[in-house]
Amino acid sequence: MNVNEDLNYVFALSRQWLWIFGVWPDPDISLSEFRRANIRFLIVSCTVFLYVSAPQMMNVIRAWGDVSRMVENFASANFSFMGACKLVVTWYHGETLRPLMASIMADWMTSTSNWERSTMMKIAKRGRSISFKCCMAAVGTIIFYLSFHLLRFFKTLHQSRRYLVYRLPFETIHKSPTYEIIYFIQLSGGTYSVLANYSIDSFVSILVLHVCAQLINLRMTLNNLVNELATKSISSSKFREGLAAIIVRHEHLIRNAKTIDGCYSSMLFMQVLATTFQMCVITFQVFTIVTDNLKVPVVRIIFLSFYIALVLTTMYAYCYSAEKLVSESTKMAYGVFECKWYDLPSKNARDLLFIIYRSTLPLRLTAGKFGTFSIELFGKTLKTSMGYLSVLLTIRD
């Protein structure tokens, strides 16, 4: 496979959507061209901010006191705002992410050993599996989101009083063709929100998993190098040259991991908060429908099911990849212990301490420097959201 086929395989559909949104950090285009805000990025971000997030936050304020209406409006405002913020963050840090993408392309082009490529493909398949699950949840959410609102659109097409997807405080919007234009722009904004959340969440998790694959390969390279010296297949000078290359490569991977964390740490802090509130308000809507025996269209019920699956899957993608990063970064030190260091000359064995020392601090994906992403954080987020749900139910009663 060539490098473009490799990237398409690794990043699955997220690469195409990020390119459509104008935020794909392509290292092949000129830097001056990349720094200019892409027209597609401006259209998508403005559509989401102006036609979804802003109207729904206004509706939250207008519905103050009515918990059910506030929760319904806040759910879409929160989700769309996060999608738009992720687009802005990815575009803003695009110049920093371009060298990282160039490094990933170089890794796929220079990996000639079967065992190196096998490791990269194994980790890439895990990333694709998570991305595919996110994609299925996103596609289901979009299909039933569009179905629900299009059915409502055609049902009220000939009525004098018609409602938009997200209500605006203007009377002129009920006149044709202004109503139809704004209605479909808002539908597009909601669709963009889902795709932005899915594509960027998949993109970041796959970036982290790629670093994990390279750490595994580096550990295997170190093990092979030590075994070669232990069996006297190479000289001591060759060993030191190989070890120096491994240390340089290790530092490069550490910088890549810190680059990812530096670009997305603040956004990931918002992701934790947004997911907590999102799960709270969605489960509140489901609880209200069940306990109050509300007559809700089946399409909306299925939409909420896919919506919950999307929120959970995207959060899990971050937590799984971050947990894998912590594990593989600390295993570099254990890799030194597991190799035949005891068969090396003492001066060569001491050189391995550089790698052990650098691996004492695990690489992490942080949430605004306040916490570390992990499977444990995933459970705590769900637990906290259920606690907020009990507060909402108490306020409603």
How would you portray this structure in words?
The chain is mostly helical. Helix content is 79%, strand content 0%. The protein has helices spanning 3-11, 14-20, 31-35, 39-62, 67-92, 94-110, 114-155, 178-230, 236-291, 298-338, 346-351, 353-358, 375-396. The mean pLDDT is 85.
Task: Tell me the strand percentage band.
Answer: under 5%
Treating each run of at least 4 consecutive H or I residues as one helix, how many helices?
A: 13
CA radius of gyration: 25 Å
Largest sheet: none
Order of helices and strands: HHHHHHHHHHHHH
Structural class: mainly alpha
Distance between the termini: 60 Å
Organism: Cardiocondyla obscurior
GO molecular function: odorant binding; olfactory receptor activity
Subcellular location: Cell membrane; Membrane
Keywords: Membrane, Olfaction, Receptor, Sensory transduction, Transducer, Transmembrane, Transmembrane helix
List keywords for this structure.
Odorant receptor, 397 residues, olfaction, mainly alpha
What can be said about this structure in brief?
The protein has 397 residues and is mainly alpha-helical. It is built from 13 helices and no strands.
